[in-house]
Specification:
The protein is mainly alpha-helical and 327 residues long. The chain contains 14 helices and three strands. The N and C termini lie far apart (63 Å).
């Protein structure tokens, strides 16, 4: 939840712009607000506008647009250096801050016409490490599904449907939590999800998904569901309190089932199940990379191409494991 009273007017106007014009999701808008508030707090320190060094005690609603006009590219890079030196922040974290700052200054300069010069115009994004994604093997994936299917608790059908969707469809955590019952079309075996950037896409359901969803819907609570802003009555997955299931609860379910299957919860997570689905589809399904991009909802094909690197690495490992390799 964003407290607009803590923000200067131009920041609130920017957030309104991202919601109403750019159609960004609430999560993205919250990230913008967090990133930019942190940046502006740093600016107050750098410009000696406060003696406070504890960010939690620094206010930003008094930073005027005249102060914003004084910010240079060097100030932005100094902020990124501060993140690295103080918090040892990873390139991906700093890249997100760069993205937020770039969109913010573009709005101030080109849309709102509040500043004449855009200091972020030539701002570069930190180079990201290209790491191969961690994922479950086919054997471990089957083991996880079997363990979840045979659990003896009142939420077993719900939990099994959740694990099945993650491993078969490769959806994101936020996408799964946001599914409504009327998003599912059993006549066409497909469902609609809202992905990153508030973009809608279709996910097709295989036999395992259809069966697990139908089994769960037979036992899904029908009475006593909360009427709330989460629109719990529409939600596919419900919590013990009969409201739309939260991300934290789903993460807890996944951790619980991974532990029951004897798998390392420090190594695997809900997002790693998404990686697993993508990797298995690419390795065993002869899936075209463009089709996989559509399934995963990646904006750029370069994001999807990491799964081709996984396959390449496996081919390399296969050659290295040849018993003649050391002769």
């Amino acid at each position: 939840m964003i407290n607009h009273e803590n923000n200067p007017d131009y920041l609130n106007s920017f957030l309104d712009y991202t919601i109403n014009i750019l159609n960004k999701s609430p999560n993205t808008v919250r990230e913008y607000n967090y990133d930019l508030a942190m940046f502006l707090k740093y600016i107050k320190i750098r410009f000696k506008m406060t003696n406070e060094d504890d960010f939690s005690n620094i206010t930003i609603n008094d930073i005027t647009i005249d102060t914003i006009k004084k910010i240079t590219l060097n100030d932005i890079y100094a902020f990124l250096g501060y993140l690295y030196n103080t918090y040892n922040s990873k390139p991906a974290t700093r890249a997100r801050k760069v993205s937020s700052i770039r969109v913010f200054f573009n709005y101030l300069c080109s849309k709102a016409n509040l500043i004449e010069v855009n200091p972020a115009q030539n701002l570069e994004t930190p180079k990201l490490d290209k790491r191969l994604p961690k994922y479950l093997s086919l054997e471990d994936s089957r083991k996880l599904l079997n363990i979840t299917a045979n659990e003896d608790n009142r939420n077993s059908k719900r939990d099994y449907a959740i694990i099945t969707l993650f491993l078969n469809c490769g959806m994101r955590l936020a996408e799964l939590v946001g599914i409504n019952i009327n998003d599912i079309d059993f006549s066409e075996n497909k469902m609609t999800v809202i992905g990153k950037g508030n973009k809608e896409r279709t996910i097709y359901l295989n036999k395992a998904c259809v069966n697990s969803l139908k089994d769960y819907l037979e036992v899904r609570p029908k009475e006593g569901i909360k009427t709330d802003k989460l629109k719990s009555k529409d939600a596919l997955f419900l919590s013990e309190r009969k409201e739309r299931i939260s991300r934290r609860t789903v993460q807890y379910i996944v951790d619980k089932e991974l532990s029951a299957a004897g798998l390392d919860t420090k190594k695997y997570s809900t997002h790693k199940l998404r990686h697993t689905a993508a990797t298995l589809m690419y390795q065993y399904g002869n899936v075209d990379i463009r089709a996989l991009q559509e399934v995963l909802g990646h904006e750029s094909i370069s994001t999807t191409e990491i799964y081709t690197h996984v396959a390449n690495q496996q081919a390399r490992d296969a050659i290295e494991s040849n018993p003649l390799a050391d002769i």
